[in-house]
Each structure stands twice: as structure tokens, then as C-alpha cells.
Specification:
Layout (H helix, E strand, L loop, with lengths): L6 H10 L3 E5 L3 H14 L3 E6 H6 L3 H14 L6 E8 L1 H10 L3 E4 L6 H16 L4 E6 L4 E3 L2 E3 L6 H8 L5 E4 L17 H10 L5 E3 L7 H9 L2 E6 L1 H16 L11 H4 L1 H18 L7
Parallel strand pairs: 1-2, 1-10, 2-3, 3-4, 4-5, 5-8, 8-9, 9-10
Antiparallel strand pairs: 6-7
Helix pairs in contact: 2-4, 2-12, 5-6, 7-8, 10-12
Length: 289
């Protein structure tokens, strides 16, 4: 299947009560791991690309080329969206020009009026090309590409105004955090989540910082309107742990164990396992049929 907008897959997930994983990609192994796993499980997926990751992978156009070619090579039949994650104003236009099928414009650090105006502009530009849009209000906690947020709780009135711009999905801070969750984390604020869903007229909601949120909280969030859950840190930790184990066991010194295809394979398999677990938890397996 050709790479598509995230709009239809999220509307279907929202209607049927399951979540779709946004798996952030960082290199060839990540893209291969996601595409092969979702094809096995017949699950739609969103490939998240931060601006930092895009730069690391050689730019937005190279990211799209890699995804398109691997999608064809592995004969992927499920819907796949390529989504700019926490895009800047300038980055959103660059990703759109490069062929990304979904854009998150993160204007949460601007004064709200400016966030609103810039979101309206980007929605119009993206929708003219059939590209889905995500917006955010109320900064998500933790660090993302050097931007640190303290886990703000979004203002439902601001959420309603931003959702009215015509965005296809909406991220509101409800106490979630990027990266590892601290021991004193208070959990998700479901009262705010319910109110945000009410005032945004049932728009598919997005849960950032999916790593470390307990399964029961994730499933409750899905039941309250969350249709997209972002996962990144957990995959990076699994990849690092598996690679470390391989090297500490001296496997890289046995035969041609230093060959990158062998050296990186344990991490690749570890990523696939985490992706599989998340898809089954979110309930999106067999939803592309």
C-alpha cells in the first residue's frame, strides 16, 4: 500500500475504540522493524519523525525515500503514515514539501493566539495536499529535541479553539511526559482528558510520552478518545540493552560478529518485540483488513 495520510486510520480507530501506535523512527533498522512487524500483525501505523531524527537520516526527502522503498521491498499492505513529530513552523513546511503525509505543528511554546494563527495557516496548506495535521496545546513534559516541558495540564477552552481550526488530531497535555517517568509521577489526568474530548467534539486525541504509562491507564485513555499513542524512548532503551548484551557477551569478537548486519540484529529484534507488544496493547492488530 502506498504511504497515506493519518486521517482515515485515526477516524476508524476513534470510532471503533482502539489506538494506533506512532513509532518514532531513527534509522534503517527502525523503519524495517516497524514495517515488517505491522505487516505481520496487519496493523495500521504512523511513523513518527522528529526534526532531529530527520536531520540524522539525511533530511526529509531521504526519510521519505527510505520509507517508500522499504514499503515496496517488503510488500507492505497496511496503511502507513509518515508524520513530522513536534514540528516547528519552518520544519512543518519543509516536511510538507518533501512529501510527508502527516504533520504535527507544535506551537505550544508560542503565546496561544500565535499558536492558533499559525495552526490555521498550516492546516490550510496541509489539507490542500491531502495531508493530515496534529496540533498541541499545553506542553508535554520531559525533553523532545532539546525542548523541555514540565507536563502542563491543557486548558480545555484553548483546546476547543485550536481544534476548531480543522486539525485532524489533537495533543493536549494531561500530565504525560516524554522519556522516562519519574517515581513520583502523578499519572494521567483523566478528568481533563474527558473534558478535552467533550469540548473538541470528538476529535481523535493523541497521547504523547507513551513509554512507561501503565497499560490500564493507556487503555482507559483510549476509551476516552485517545486514538494515537506515541512510543519512542522504550524502543531506544530496548535497542541499547540488546546491543549492549551482544557486545558484553563478546559476540562481536566471534567470527564476523562485528558485521553491522549481525551487530545490530539483536537490537532490531528487540525493537520488533516492543512494537508487537504495543500494537497488541493498543488493539490495532488486524484492523487494516
Amino acid at each position: 500500500m502506498s504511504v497515506v495520510s493519518a486521517r482515515e486510520m485515526l477516524l476508524k480507530a476513534h470510532k471503533e475504540g482502539y489506538g494506533i501506535a506512532q513509532i518514532n523512527i531513527n534509522n534503517l533498522e527502525w523503519i524495517k522493524a516497524v514495517l515488517t512487524t505491522v505487516e505481520e500483525l496487519k496493523s495500521p501505523v504512523i511513523l513518527g519523525v522528529s526534526e532531529g531524527a530527520a536531520k540524522y537520516m539525511g533530511g526529509y526527502r531521504n526519510v521519505m525515500a527510505m520509507v517508500h522503498e522499504l514499503d515496496k521491498f517488503y510488500n507492505v499492505t497496511v496503511p502507513v503514515a509518515v508524520h513530522l513529530d513536534h514540528g516547528t513552523y519552518e520544519g512543518s513546511y519543509k516536511a510538507l514539501e518533501a512529501g510527508f503525509t502527516s504533520i504535527m505543528f507544535d506551537g505550544s511554546h508560542y503565546p496561544f493566539a500565535e499558536n492558533l494563527e499559525k495552526t490555521k495557516e498550516i492546516v490550510a496548506a496541509c489539507h490542500a495536499k491531502g495531508v493530515s495535521v496534529e496540533a498541541e496545546v499545553g506542553a508535554i513534559g520531559g525533553e523532545e529535541d532539546g525542548v523541555i516541558g514540565m507536563g502542563e495540564i491543557a486548558d480545555p477552552k484553548e483546546c476547543a479553539a485550536l481544534a476548531a481550526t480543522g486539525v485532524d488530531m489533537f495533543a493536549a497535555g494531561i500530565g504525560n511526559i516524554h522519556g522516562k517517568y519519574p517515581a513520583n509521577w502523578k499519572g494521567l489526568n483523566f478528568e481533563v482528558l474527558e473534558e478535552v474530548q467533550r469540548v473538541t467534539n470528538g476529535i481523535p486525541l493523541v497521547l504523547h510520552g507513551g513509554t512507561g504509562i501503565p497499560e490500564h491507564m493507556v487503555k482507559k485513555a483510549i476509551s476516552l478518545g485517545v486514538s494515537k499513542i506515541n512510543v519512542n524512548t522504550e524502543l531506544q532503551l530496548a535497542f541499547a540493552a540488546a546491543t549492549r548484551k551482544y557486545i558484553e557477551a563478546g559476540k562481536d569478537l566471534e567470527g564476523k560478529g562485528f558485521d553491522p548486519r549481525k551487530l545490530l540484529n539483536p537490537g532490531y529484534e528487540a525493537i520488533k518485540q516492543v512494537i508487537r507488544e504495543k500494537i497488541l496493547m493498543f488493539g490495532s492488530d488486524n484492523k487494516s483488513i
